[in-house]
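User: I'll paste a sequence; please echo it back and then give the predicted structure.

Assistant: Echoing your sequence first, then the prediction.
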Amino acid sequence: MSTIASISSNDRASAINGADDSTAASRIPQKALGQNDFLKLLATQFQTQDPMKPMEDTAFIAQMAQFSSLEQSSALARDMSAMRVDQLRVTANSYLGHRVTVEDETGKLVTADVTAIDASGTEPQLIVGDKPYSLSAVLRVEPSFVSAPAPQPVTTGGA
């Protein structure tokens, strides 16, 4: 016959918190619970629940609905972040070839044409003159006064 060890309130609190003394110091506090935290909490709840008093079906369904909502919110936040980056790139590209007035790091205003876009970082940078500027530094946008070079006549080979 096997024996069942009793679970003290300290053991249960440690199981619910998901850490013992050795891992508590290495845990980095977070501002919000994530998907993994929810799954750990749900697994711990299943492990510590009394088999003679199982959770009601409605409570379980409500928790699963909350989990589904959390997952959808996380996906929406990722998609919105990606859309923001795409929108910044579109905005930066729309400035290409236009004359802009930007404020440099010293507060001086610089007016010149946007000659290139640097999209290698997390946010695109406008190349004005020979220096990169963020989109937030743009104070004014106007059409460039530099006209395109005149087309060259096409010559065909022949004598």
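Residues 66 and 112 are 52 Å apart (CA to CA). Strands lie at 99-103, 109-118, 125-128, 131-134, 138-142.
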